[in-house]
């Protein structure tokens, strides 16, 4: 009971953020209380740090790369190209924006897609004089696709990184399983979003109102370096399957190289359009503290009773067959993430899977189902992920206020069919690409 009270109090502070209290400070405060009351001990700190450090610093490096590219105008350039590609047809622009969000989510993580692309899309819609209902349709679609298509690569979501590290999933093997599954999720997302907002999407828009894409580029050095750098980064990540390196080392090296280009280290004293001080200031450093603090609180909750209870549920689901185990685990993880936040839910799921007695194939299916549930489940409620809470805050600053009731109405209708379709795709695809024995 004490572990549960500490968790609820900590999560409340993380979501509420009274007087601007940082999420990392709240999480560390909860961890300190858990340590002081004996819910966790010092040995648990080392265990939790071993689980989260690589994922956390990989995520920070990835967001730094995203912020540098955003400062250079990379994402605005891409969005303007997509808007022009739509050719003035609103019903073509809508899926193109969703596809752009999916591409950015897969490469720059769901947070980058939701938080960097959404303001750019909002500015373009304002320029095109879209009605409030039409603008809201595009903006919500951008936010939702960022999570529903954050499955394909290990780096596409912090949940993926934590899970891959915990279960030693190689970058190549993970992509082999999840890229096709993500395509199903993308197709389902396009279908559901298109149906839900069919009356709000305008038939035509004036392309002449758009600026030339080239006008968005603020730093040509960074912009042109982005394409080969991203190619090398993905190659290095796939190569890490053969020559194991922490993801954070590879991602950190890419971030440092891009920062060096932005800083013009070979030409000090010349003007630099990208402000590295602004990038460093806006990097998610609170996530480092949050990861250690919140995971330590959750680890204590798991030790108390939750991990044992969850592992029992998984063993029961495994007895119902592989498809039932996959869908049941994914739905349970999604529901847990929607009320607990997906980062704590991911750790609970990982600990429970590790503890449960499961057949090998069923265990692998459940591992990936836990990822799917924690990637998509946060879209049920605004508190499902920190990215969603921040996304809503950014939208409010742009004049788009989405109430919790309105959000959940959309979230349940859109997320449910996408989640089920994705889990079924996983249940049939993974056995097909897994060698017998």
Question: What is the average of the pLDDT values?
Answer: 87
| Secondary structure: number of strands | 0
Order of helices and strands: HHHHHHHHHHHHHHHHH
Q: Radius of gyration over alpha carbons? A: 21 Å
- Derived from helix and strand composition plus strand pairing, the structural class reads mainly alpha
Whole-Å distance between the termini?
Answer: 43 Å
Main β-sheet description: none
Helix content: over 70%
The proportion of residues in beta strands is under 5%
Low-confidence stretches: none
Number of helices: 17
- Overall spatial form: globular
Would you write up a description of this structure?
With 437 residues, this protein is mainly α. 76% of the residues lie in helices and 0% in strands. The protein has 17 helices and no strands. It has helices at 2-16, 23-36, 42-72, 74-85, 90-127, 132-148, 158-166, 171-196, 220-239, 247-263, 276-282, 285-318, 322-340, 342-355, 360-376, 386-397, 404-432. Helix 3 (42-72) crosses helix 12 (285-318). It is globular, with a radius of gyration of 21 Å. The model has no long low-confidence stretch (mean pLDDT 87).
């Amino acid at each position: 009971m004490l572990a549960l009270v500490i968790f609820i109090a900590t999560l409340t502070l993380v979501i509420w953020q009274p007087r601007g209290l940082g999420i990392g400070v709240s999480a560390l405060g909860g961890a300190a209380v858990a340590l002081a009351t004996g819910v966790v001990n010092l040995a648990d700190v080392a265990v939790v740090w071993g689980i989260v450090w690589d994922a956390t610093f990989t995520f920070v490096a990835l967001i730094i790369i995203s912020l540098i590219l955003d400062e250079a105008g990379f994402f605005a350039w891409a969005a303007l190209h997509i808007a022009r590609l739509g050719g003035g047809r609103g019903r073509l622009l809508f899926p193109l924006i969703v596809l752009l969000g999916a591409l950015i989510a897969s490469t720059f993580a769901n947070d980058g897609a939701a938080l960097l692309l959404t303001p750019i899309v909002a500015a373009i819609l304002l320029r095109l004089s879209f009605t409030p209902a039409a603008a809201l349709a595009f903006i919500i679609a951008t936010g939702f696709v960022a999570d529903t298509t954050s499955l394909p690569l290990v780096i596409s979501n912090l949940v993926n990184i934590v899970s891959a590290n915990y279960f030693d999933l190689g970058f190549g093997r993970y992509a082999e399983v999840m890229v096709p599954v993500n395509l199903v999720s993308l197709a389902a997302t396009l279908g559901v979003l298109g149906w839900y907002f069919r009356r709000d999407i305008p038939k035509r828009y004036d392309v002449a109102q758009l600026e030339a894409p080239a006008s968005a580029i603020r730093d040509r050095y960074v912009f042109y370096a982005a394409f080969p750098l991203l190619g090398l980064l993905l190659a290095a990540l796939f190569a890490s399957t053969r020559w194991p390196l922490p993801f954070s080392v590879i991602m950190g090296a890419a971030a440092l190289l891009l920062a060096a280009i932005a800083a013009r280290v070979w030409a000090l004293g010349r003007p630099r359009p990208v402000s590295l001080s602004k990038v460093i200031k806006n990097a998610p450093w609170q996530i480092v503290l949050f990861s250690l603090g919140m995971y330590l609180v959750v680890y204590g909750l798991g030790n108390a009773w939750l991990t044992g209870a969850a592992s029992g549920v998984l063993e029961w689901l495994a007895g119902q067959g592989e498809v039932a185990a996959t869908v049941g685990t994914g739905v349970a993880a999604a529901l847990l993430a929607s009320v607990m936040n997906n980062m704590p839910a991911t750790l609970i799921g990982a600990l429970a899977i590790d503890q449960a007695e499961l057949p090998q194939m069923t265990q692998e299916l459940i591992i990936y189902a836990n990822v799917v549930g924690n990637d998509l489940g946060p879209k049920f409620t605004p508190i499902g992920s920190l990215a969603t809470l921040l996304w809503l805050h950014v939208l409010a600053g742009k004049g788009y206020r989405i109430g919790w009731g309105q959000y959940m109405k959309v979230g349940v209708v859109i997320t449910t069919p996408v989640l089920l379709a994705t889990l079924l795709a996983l249940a049939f695809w993974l056995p097909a690409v897994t060698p017998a024995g």
